[in-house]
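debug: dumping io for the single-chain case to check the tokenizer round-trip. Nothing else runs in this session.
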Amino acid sequence: TSYFGFVDGKFMMLEDTQLDQSILASVGNAIAWLFTPLGWGDWKAAVAAITGLVAKENVVGTFGILYGFTEVAEDGFEIWGALALSYTQIAAFSFLIFNLLCAPCFAAIGAIKREMNNGKWTVFAIIYQTVFAYLIAFCVYQIGNAVITKTFTIATIIAIIVIIGFIYLIVRPYKEGKKHDVGFDNVVTSK
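debug: decoded output
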């Protein structure tokens, strides 16, 4: 999908310099807006995050293809300059956080389905992990951007509210624990 696309109304194979016109770029541009609040709303990062659902190591492979790296040294020296032009440090950190916390690869999703033995709970687990990853990456990017650039926006306020919500969920009292008093008054003992 990265080397095929429509140019001048014709479907054709693309050169390395035409990746922005590929089918993959069209798909990435369609979903990239979802990741703009996380700091990495370009099609390449969006596509890399989606291919990470197949296997997390595909994120690196997708970046390698989309940025034109055929051979990379062990220390990745060739990649850092190109990525530094595309992403700020806080946006790159947000990207990493999202990809590390979001739904696992398809194989792990299959294991979740098998262990839970329930399709609804599997879908809930995947949505929960992805939303949680999105919120954490959102907070990291918005708060980090506010600290680095000294700009305070409505997104920063939303991030602060989300953090307050997380803190409340962590420290709130467990009310259900008081409802389940176990009494030993009716225990029958044999003599």
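debug: round-trip ok. The chain has a mean pLDDT of 83.
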